[in-house]
Specification:
162 residues; alpha+beta; Arc Repressor Mutant, subunit A; Alpha-Beta Plaits; 2 domains; four-stranded antiparallel β-sheet; 5 helices; 20% strand
């Protein structure tokens, strides 16, 4: 488990802004918080050094890119095979141009692996399900199609005013 870090009120507010817009200018953040841009920059550097800020991301609208089908593929697997199965799934999706992987996570519960995926059509998704079912150590799969899947897209986490 990771160590928790104490953050002050300004750092918390900076994180809220950056979570909703990772590319926000430090000058804009500074103006909103009533502190200097230099102070914002220094606090962001401290948050990076602490490991609180680990990077930035770019998100896409998969449907506009031609991936209208959004689904969760889950699998029951042998414990000793989890990481090999995750790697095989990632490699399979990376080699295809008709699938986009949103997430591939290992967990504990009824299902051991959760795959967030966007596909060109239901046939591509079913082909991926059959691929996963055929991997050594997989004991079962299920697929859940979603009309919307906001938890696999960058959504605003903080809606409160600063």
């Amino acid at each position: 488990m990771a160590n928790s870090h104490e953050i002050d009120e300004f750092e918390r507010k900076i994180l809220k802004v950056l979570y909703n817009n990772p590319r926000e200018k430090t000058g804009v953040i500074a103006k909103d918080l009533g502190i200097s841009a230099t102070a914002v920059t220094k606090r962001i550097e401290v948050l990076k050094k602490k490991g609180v800020i680990t990077g930035t991301t770019v998100s896409f609208d998969e449907e506009l890119l031609g991936f209208p089908l959004t689904a969760v593929l889950v699998a029951k697997v042998q414990f000793s095979c989890k990481m090999e199965i995750v790697q095989a799934i990632k490699e399979k999706v990376a080699a295809r141009d008709d699938l986009v992987l949103s997430t591939c996570q290992v967990g504990i519960g009824h299902y051991d692996i959760l795959v967030g995926i966007h596909a060109k059509n239901k046939y591509v998704l079913d082909e991926m399900r059959r691929f996963v079912e055929g991997l050594p150590g997989v004991r079962g799969t299920a697929v859940y199609n979603w009309l919307e899947m906001p938890f696999f897209k960058r959504e605003k986490l903080f809606e409160t005013e600063i």
